Amino acid sequence: MKTRTLFNTLLLGSTLLLTQACTRQAVEPEPDEPDGSATFWTDSRTAGGAWIDVYFDGDYAGRITQYRTVAGAPECDSDGFVTVEAAPGSYPYTATGQDGTKWKGTVRIQSEGCSTALIH
Fold first, then answer.
1. Annotated domain spans of the chain
2. Residue 62 and residue 55: Cα distance in Å, rounded?
3. For a tag on the chain, would you pick the N or C end, based on fewer CB atoms within 10 A?
4. What tens digit of pLDDT does each residue of 53-107 get?
5. Distance CA 103, CA 65 (A)
6. Distance between CA atoms of residues 37 and 108, nearest Å
């Protein structure tokens, strides 16, 4: 009788353990990962003075310290320019030059691509 009770207890415990192990748990979705980017640049060495601070969607994004006059926009992540990453969509930006000049606009970020925003 003791053997049967012990066997039933072990069987019940194993069943509960397996049931718990196989129960599906809700998985939280991952937050939207940025999959696009934009580079802010200027084509004038006198635009804004020696540098231009860029604010992307209300947050400080970085400082432009270079200018480019040939061959169009720089590659994303080029030194001296400001590159941001974000989910696809349209975002406001503002910029302020060392000399107090101010700019504002909207940049559109596309999935798996690099947009550019010329400040001049």
1. 36-118
2. 7
3. N
4. 999 999 999 999 999 887 789 998 999 999 999 999 999 999 999 999 999 999 9
5. 16
6. 9
